[in-house]
Amino acid sequence: MSRHQPARAENLRRAIAQEAARIMAEHGIRDFYVAKRKAAERYGVYDGGLLPKNIEIEEALAGYQRLFGGASHAASLLAQRSAALEAMEWLAEFEPRLVGPVLAGTATAHVDVQLHLFAERAESVALKLMDHGIPHEIGERRVKWNAERIVGCPTIRFEMAGVAIEAIVFPRDGIRQSPVSPVDGRPMRRANLAEVATLVAGER
Fold this sequence. Notes:
Elements: H1 5-27, H2 32-42, H3 54-90, E1 97-99, H4 101-104, E2 113-118, H5 123-131, E3 137-144, E4 150-160, E5 163-170, H6 193-203
C-alpha cells in the first residue's frame, strides 16, 4: 500500500464529514447516518470503513455554522433556547432537561428542541397541555440506554413561542441516568432550567 494512502483516506473522511454537515445545515436532515450516506454517495464511497464518525460530523457542522451561519444561526439558536426555557419553566413540575443540538449549539433552524421530562405517567404531561388548550401529538421514540438495552419511550410534540418541541417522558427515576448520545455514544448531556436560563441570558 502506498504511504500516501492513509493521508488520502483521512482527507476523504474529512471531506465526507464536511459534506454531511452541509447537507444537515442546508436541507434539514437530522439523521447523521442519512447525511453521511448521502455525502458518501456524492464522493462515490461505499466502504463503511471510510465514513466519518458522528462526532466528526458534529464538529464539521459546528465549523460550518461558524463560517456560514453568522448572525442568522445565532438568532435561530437564541430563539430555540428561549422557547426551550419558556417550556421548561412552564413544565417545571416534570424536572425538564434540555438535550441535543439546541443545547450543544449545533442546531439548524429545522431541528426540534429536545427535552427530557420525568413523570410517573406520561399522560400527566399531555393532560397539562390539554387543559391549557395547547395542541400536541403523542408518539414514541426508541431510546438507547446501553449496547444491550433499547426501550420505547413516550413522546409529546408541541410548540412554544412558534418553535417545535419534542419532549421524551421518562419515569421519575430516569433522571439518574442519561441515555446514550447518538453523537458520541456517551451519556447524553442534560441541562436543567437554571443552566438553560444562564445560556439564554448570555446570548441576549
